[in-house]
């Protein structure tokens, strides 16, 4: 079951056969007050998703040229396309989790059985993990609006995110990437 922050609080309280505690209400109040930052963070990732994924896959390949040679896991083109597709799917579910403030959508719809599927297909987890690490670094730079033209090149696009401290949101996004890495390891 996919839960947002509000549904999760209600389900938890219901399981305890009680009402929402003051602490739970305070957490929800904080979730709402940080809503624009959360939306900006999701927008920063979603608006740059194809660049984030393609740069991560390119970085992974630069570090392991054997992936694009005959017999490699990104050879021929259809395997490369599948790799890019999978990267975009994972990133999309990370943005869903970030928007909801809850990892259940990521767990239920993306990570459930992913390791077993990749093992059956012979997808190397070390390369996948490396691509995820690159995607994480890039996504966090976009959330914090610390990406620069020097790093982004011609495709650079400054988002102008909500001002203020985004450290909690950055840590939350990082935890979703770490969750995917952990599920594959």
Instruction: Estimate what percentage of residues fall within beta strands.
Output: under 5%
CATH architectural label of the largest domain: Orthogonal Bundle
Based on Cα principal axes, name the global outline.
flat
Structural class: mainly alpha
| Name of the CATH homologous superfamily of the largest domain | Phycocyanins
Identify the notable features of this structure and list them briefly:
Globin-like, 0% strand, 185 residues, thylakoid, flat, 10 helices, mainly alpha
Short description:
This protein has helices spanning 5-15, 22-33, 35-47, 49-63, 77-100, 104-111, 114-121, 125-143, 149-152, 167-184. 71% of the residues lie in helices and 0% in strands.
Give a structural overview.
- By secondary structure, the chain is mostly helical.
- The protein has 2 domains: 1-33; 35-184, Phycocyanins (Globin-like, Orthogonal Bundle), CATH 1.10.490.20.
- The protein has helices at residues 5-15, 22-33, 35-47, 49-63, 77-100, 104-111, 114-121, 125-143, 149-152, 167-184.
- The chain is flat and about 60 Å long.
Structural topology:
Blueprint (H helix, E strand, L loop, with lengths): L4 H11 L6 H12 L1 H13 L1 H15 L13 H24 L3 H8 L2 H8 L3 H19 L5 H4 L14 H18 L1
